[in-house]
């Protein structure tokens, strides 16, 4: 018996060494941690339950039968993050370059199936050279199986991808279909075709970092939701994110004990909106001052900065925030910002996370650059997302809310539950100057008359009261008491039930 | 004995009353106008309110929501933001006086406070000026005249020869009369050019010749004069107070040697340098000078004092000084009240004998200047402004004179002062210690400010010893301010506090809902703390074991030392008042991945608190050096690119305009620091950039 136990121990130790000390050292030399070290950091100490430790591939071509390492290049199992269950797979670059074989893929599929059945998030740590070429179509089939599960799991359990090394070719499409992608600066990249192919086909000279590094994907392509300095920081921040998310669509988001006064008054918010309507201000200050303990987890911080998306807690409960950012492009809606916010709203709706919208929007960005690229359909994504969302929706207009953008930004007309406005808000079809020039076209030659008409228009419409008279705004509130009012609105909405007519699924303008 | 507490509770508006006044002549003013803004306007309003006098504020467009406007009983708008279109336009201020019916005007400092024409206009309108007579302002307003008057009044002035000096022989003769060391200066000089210090005849001859040549070459004007060179100069000033009945007293001195480019930063009273005899001599000469010009009201006579306690008259400021609170704190006299009473024609009710020195007071001026960026003014919104509580702190007192509030704006149009933080204690050491603690709990966010710098000065051995000169900042911080590194013992205390605080945060994390029953996370006792403050070698890991009990925790270090940590910090608190090892420790706390950003005593630390396993793996992470920015043009402030003046491939000369950034309605032209070739331009007109965004790169 003793021998058998010892043998198990030996086998385990063998498996844990992955590709051996030399490859582990090489991995460290690249500034990267190993698959198991990453899991150590991700999960609560001692909570990891590994499965399929002894899985090995079954390929017999090209001499592969002589090299059948345990685990087959991916470590899988489950564990807890602050006591809450998560499933995890972590590709092991030290074992056959983390390449994906049929068995490697099967291991991933196994825990994904468990995750969907048992209702817990899947966190995938990607560090793989790509398909196991020796396996040919078996490897591709493996990818396909994983893709199908990504699709099935979407909206059922949160899926988070960490890109911590190469992720190229078809492999990118698994993370692409998960809810969040995070990258590590300087040591990870993602692209469909690498720099060599790019050079051959298009003659473009580009480095892997420029083509698909963390900076590219967080700032230009918006493929990634965030980038971090190193493996340790990235994993710590994923733990932080998981604390905001429900385990599945069958459960409410988690509640964390909080140390902040729900009724906290912030007098400084009374002066947040500058006197001059064209002077920008930082909407993040408002978000931080509403949130419990000023704690805000931003998603896609570096992309389409004219809109802000992320998570806060109110009374310990997760709330998704969508906010126009007057600091950037006056907070205008455009293709990028609409896409960014729409995806975020749909994530929140899928996982029962209430949505707070903070509105200061002058309209949609005009120009051929936008129209040629289809701002009509992209803008409609946000409109659609807000309109279909059945989670509690609270909206606060701080300043401008003009035209179509007013309707889009979680207006009463899109089934928002509570719509507040600060006294500084202007809810109108457009700014006073533009409106006057249309209504009083005849007086365009007379600057004095135009000025008078403009003043008249401002008087009549540059305020929240016209909308409030119609009930489109439920209440005009003091900026200083925003936290309290918003928190109470969400408290009131805790029992909200709303449904959509039966349909197979909708047809959002993709 | 500590001064009456209420005097310093400025926010409550109660100030210690002086003995009942024997009124002579007219009744007290009903209403006064304060021809100023910011903290000094607020300061004057507090005393006026205490005296039952109504107050009128004036304000420009930029100050519509300012604190002084809110505090005053009435406010009159006087024009656009620039002071030369509002606060210093005499006609506009006179209109405001007329409109409000104020009977007297307090000018504060700066603006119209030393403007004889303003005093004249008030006189013509029959409105009292809470300040000296116009003749005194005029006499002291001119450097040469004031020096002459001082000499006639037997006030010690810097010996020197103002006439033309023909040759080296004459220079030596004059220098011997003055006494070495002497400064040989070009009349037209400036910026150190044409300036020589001579300690003997030989150096004098050489210096004279070279100064003359340099002056001729640089300025085309070779006139030279010689004056006494003051060694180890300190800036010490005397507060005087005179009435219109021939009474004059001095209220001791203030030491203002800690200056940056002639801007005072730290002041204290009394001076750690003066002895009673020198104080008396300086005081009496100051009063004599005031009397010589028929001075009334509060005024300040500034001296330069050398290492042998020789003092020389510099100038007289015919107004209330910024740093007057330190005098109030050690004498118990409300200077603003005295000024108002004097202006009302009342005689002084304090005699020289009544003036004592009670304890020690220090003032730190908090400026919206970023010490890490060569004190570049930093304007914008105060997203957070939480001064320490005024009143008693330990065995001392805290007083904070300010004109701003949380959510208010530091505007580009005026002095970037945020507040004057003053502390009092029976001893100098005590006052410094109270100041350190007050600074630690002073929260200012949203703009850059010099709080870390003044905190560093409070811990500087030279300042603590009291052995400083006006060259203190230039000598001790020759390369600017690069932050503070704490002593090892202090770092250990911070590490212990950080470990204990992190444990609180971790336990809260582990109490989230939705946990797997019976498989909850157990927060361990073993942690590794690293503190990084930009100083190499500072981020050595401290492995600790935390044993918590009901009241706090014992943090055991590897070398066997155990520090007791107590405090009721909870996650989200931006200030942690901890007791570590029996002594208080105040930390400013910001959230950060796996730990906190902690600020205390001017140090800015990034604390990581990790489990031993996390620490072991974190140690494998490559050290990423910050990118070399020496060949980049970084955006110095958040703003909008208005114009890019160069193209890629252009060769630029030092000082050439590269681009224009608009921030806070101001266009800032960014210029090339050295010659170079533009290799890449990352921004175009219309882009809005954040601080440190790369605008362009050079080869």
Could you name the key traits of this structure?
heterodimer, A: 510 residues, alpha/beta, eight-stranded mixed beta sheet, seven-stranded mixed beta sheet, 17 strands, B: nine-stranded antiparallel beta sheet, 40 strands, globular
Q: What does the model show?
A:
The complex is a heterodimer of chains A (510) and B (699). Chain A has 510 residues and is an alpha/beta fold. Chain A has helices at 2-16, 21-29, 35-42, 102-118, 137-153, 173-176, 195-202, 208-212, 214-220, 231-242, 283-290, 335-350, 368-372, 375-388, 403-408, 432-439, 447-461, 465-469, 482-492, and strands at 49-51, 74-81, 84-91, 122-126, 159-163, 166-168, 180-184, 189-191, 226-228, 297-299, 307-314, 317-324, 355-361, 393-402, 418-421, 426-428, 475-476. In chain A, strand 11 (307-314) and strand 12 (317-324) form a beta hairpin. The termini of chain A are far apart. In chain A, 52% of the residues are buried. With 699 residues, chain B is α+β, with helices and mostly antiparallel strands. In chain B, the strands form nine sheets. Chain B has a nine-stranded antiparallel β-sheet, with helices on both faces. Residues 1-25 of chain B have low confidence and may be disordered. Classes of the chains: A alpha/beta (510), B alpha+beta (699). At the A-B interface, helix 3 and helix 10 of A face helix 18 of B.
